[in-house]
Design a protein that fits this description.
heterodimer, A: mainly beta, 7-stranded mixed beta sheet, 4-stranded antiparallel beta sheet, globular, B: mainly beta, 6-stranded mixed beta sheet, 10 strands
Chain lengths: ~110, ~110
């Protein structure tokens, strides 16, 4: 079956702009989690959505937001981009119980 | 082994040897642990998991050991191969809460 698909894979933005990243989970998975990965901070949890509801949230400012649609697809948005937002944004899906997260290849965001 | 901080620990192992990657976790309430492998340019990939009611679990060429007394987790890879070169992350969770990842260990296999 198809894996987790993230789009776009690469993008370049400038400070102050906003960006929307998309994630299509594995068919049948109802949970989608988002992580930010940087060389200095490792994998940092952003938020998790389950059946269109945010179930868990990490310690990121309100500029970072997300949502999940009825087909379990998810988007995350970062507004008023800062240089420090440059990172690999990873989406992971699961059935919703504690267990294996299936990660996508990530969206690499560069903020200039 | 893994630790909180900015520097990625590294481990170099001769091809064919066994490797052990260590991870210290801090939350004594964590009841689920998982190891991921991340190759360059790819997302993390599941290797093996273990729940807190176990102290050892084996997979194909991999073994995870859990010592709850000292809050320590290790991943053993037998007969390492060049394809094992990657960054390895441990992660922990409490119940249905989010997975918290360690900073990772870079494993390099020397031919």
């Amino acid at each position: 079956k198809a894996g987790v698909t993230q789009t776009p894979r690469y993008l370049i933005k400038t400070r102050g702009q906003q960006v929307t990243l998309s994630c299509s989970p594995i068919s049948g998975h109802r949970s989608v989690s988002w992580y930010q990965q940087t060389p200095g901070q490792g994998l940092q949890f952003l938020f998790e959505y389950f059946s269109e509801t945010q179930r868990n949230k990490g310690n990121f400012p309100g500029r970072f937001s997300g949502r999940q649609f009825s087909n379990s697809r998810s988007e995350m948005n970062v507004s008023t981009l800062e240089l420090g937002d440059s990172a690999l944004y990873l989406c992971a899906s699961s059935f919703g119980q504690p267990g294996e997260l299936f990660f996508g290849e990530g969206s690499r965001l560069t903020v200039l | 082994g893994e630790s909180v901080g900015l520097h990625l620990p590294t481990l170099s192992v001769q091809e064919g040897d066994n490797s052990i990657i260590n991870c210290a976790y801090s939350n004594s309430a964590s009841d689920y642990f998982i190891w991921y492998k991340q190759e360059s340019g790819k997302g993390p990939q599941f290797i093996i998991d273990i729940r807190s009611n176990m102290d050892k679990r084996q997979g194909q060429r991999v073994t995870v050991l859990l010592n709850k007394t000292v809050k320590h987790l290790s991943l053993q890879i037998a007969a390492t191969q060049p394809g094992d070169s990657a960054v390895y992350f441990c992660a922990e969770a409490v119940g249905n809460e989010k997975l918290t990842f360690g900073t990772g260990t870079r494993l390099t296999i020397i031919p």
